[in-house]
Amino acid sequence: MIEVVITGIGLVSALGKSLEESWQSLIAGKSGIKWHQPFPELAPLPLGLIRDKPSSLQSLTRTVVDAAIKDADLVPPLTDCAVVIGSSRSYQASWERLARKFYADEDSRAEKLENWLDTLPHMNAIATARQIGATGAIISPMAACATGIWAIAQAAILIQTGQYQRAIAGATEAPITPLTLSGFQQMGALAKTGAYPFDINREGLVLGEGGAVFVLESKELAKQRQAKIYGEILGFALTNDAYHSNQLDPEGRSAIASIKQCLERSRLTSTDIDYIHAHGTATQLNDQIESQVIKKIFPAKVAISSTKGSTGHTLGASGALGVAFSLLAKERKILPPCVGLQKSEFDLNIVTTANYSHIQRVLCLSFGFGGQNTAIALGN
């Protein structure tokens, strides 16, 4: 099968407006989570905002795509290139603003609906294709919090099967909207003070905005043009619990299956993994079940951390951010810390401060609402 490598990364998060800025803040143990009140009708909350006000999906996506293309030393137009850009919330913020205006002023409803087609869920990926001049396949996946890793996997499949030699893939999320905040609050899932993954006193998730986009290429093309290679995609898997709309299978059976499938397809064993970027949402149920799953499969020594205590939970983009941080961890031989963790509830080797380690193979995990489980393995 054709080998697929990553040659460019673009990332923006509450930790920083670039990949390097976010990485340096992460390994320094900083958090981008702060108190904000973006909507006067809602009480202040800890949030992972990039700026003082919520970002737009359009500008967020354009920024990370530009950064990834530049990082890969490519110049548009990239005609024969696939685009796989996903999002969990997509243009929900635009739809909420439109609804408020629509019902506030009946006389200008037609005028307000003029550009509504531009806010359909798949238009974010189409906008990226226009941005880089790509005329190849466009895929706009949505798999809840598993979206980011699944987007990368779908792009890898396009290259592995010989349909394309290059793809732009990842996920972006601008989820700070009244409806999203109210929905998670109604579920009792939002933290009251901050995000503390795997901590005995964890309170819940903190919503964050951000995105990560990658340039994927066949290894042959990357070597041909002497591109910098961050790492190779060794294997991946996606499974579904078929259990509940927002609760995980308490036995974690499908999550275990996704990891085992990923390892098998990567031709790895559990002892080959040096670092696991966990989903680690800091909710009671997710952290508990994810810890059980990891303990059932991996040796006690494997290093683990979640970066959501730094960036907040970027929903569909979270797995993509995890892949980006994992690639830098592997490249620079630094284990990123699980910021926010003070006292772990679980008997796992969780990284609390950044430290050097000989990392060769990493595993990234994402578990989304509806029981969607993804795992991706990365190596040299």
Summarize the structure.
With 380 residues, the protein is an alpha/beta fold.
How do the strands and helices of this protein lay out in sequence?
Elements: E1 4-12, H1 19-27, E2 34-36, E3 45-47, H2 57-71, E4 82-86, H3 92-104, H4 109-112, H5 123-132, E5 138-139, H6 147-160, E6 166-173, H7 178-187, E7 210-218, H8 219-224, E8 231-240, H9 253-266, E9 275-277, H10 284-297, E10 303-305, H11 308-311, H12 318-332, E11 334-335, E12 355-356, E13 362-368, E14 372-379
Parallel strand pairs: 4-5, 4-6, 9-10, 9-13
Antiparallel strand pairs: 1-7, 1-8, 2-3, 6-7, 8-14, 11-12, 13-14
Helix pairs in contact: 2-5, 6-12, 9-10
Family: Belongs to the thiolase-like superfamily. Beta-ketoacyl-ACP synthases family.
Protein name: Beta-ketoacyl-ACP synthase
Pfam families: ketoacyl-synt, Ketoacyl-synt_C
Comma- or semicolon-separated keywords:
PKS_Beta-ketoAc_synthase_dom; 34% helix; two-stranded antiparallel ribbon; alpha/beta; ten-stranded mixed beta sheet; transferase; 380 residues; 14 strands; Peroxisomal Thiolase, Chain A, domain 1; Beta-ketoacyl-ACP synthase; globular
Provide an overview of this structure.
It contains 12 helices and 14 strands. It has helices at about 20-25, 55-70, 90-105, 110, 125-130, 145-160, 180-185, 220-225, 255-265, 285-295, 310, 320-330, and strands spanning about 5-10, 35, 45, 80-85, 140, 165-175, 210-220, 230-240, 275, 305, 335, 355, 360-370, 370-380. The strands form 3 sheets. The protein has a 10-stranded mixed sheet, sandwiched between helices. The protein has about 375 residues and is an alpha/beta fold. The protein has a single domain, classed as Thiolase/Chalcone synthase (Peroxisomal Thiolase, Chain A, domain 1, 3-Layer(aba) Sandwich).
